[in-house]
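hiii, so i know i said id send this last week but things got crazy w the move. better late than never?? heres the sequnce for the chain we talked about at the cafe, plus the structure i predicted for it. fair warning i was half asleep when i ran it
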Amino acid sequence: MDASQVAVVQTAAASTINLPADAPAEPGGVRILRYAHSAVEMTTASSVPGLVVLCDMMYPGWRAYVNGRSADILKVNGIFRGVCVPAGECRVEFRFEPASLRNGVILLCLGLLAIGGCLVGSCLPRRKKDERAV
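okay and structure toks below
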């Protein structure tokens, strides 16, 4: 088995993968535009639909986008991330967007609003108890 030609996809979405049975005469290409800790951007070009496999570990929190649209990430060969791409030229992005980070930012903002409200409330002039409204 040639690992550069065969991929074992292990995910529930694998049954919906629609790839050609035979390899095309001209193989497609992938060009990595940016490779960072929290994002990978690449372009692909192929005459038939294909599977792009990124040899980075599959980890919760990663999201995939093909031509700007959300795409399912497939678990490939047990530990890698993959995504199906249509024929033609495509832009593929993997972004690390964990829910825990988003939830943390929301809680931070709510906490800052609460502290700001307390500070504003403590700076307002207070009415003395013996003063009566006239």
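btw The CA atoms of residues 61 and 97 lie 5 Å apart. thought thatd interest u
miss u guys!!
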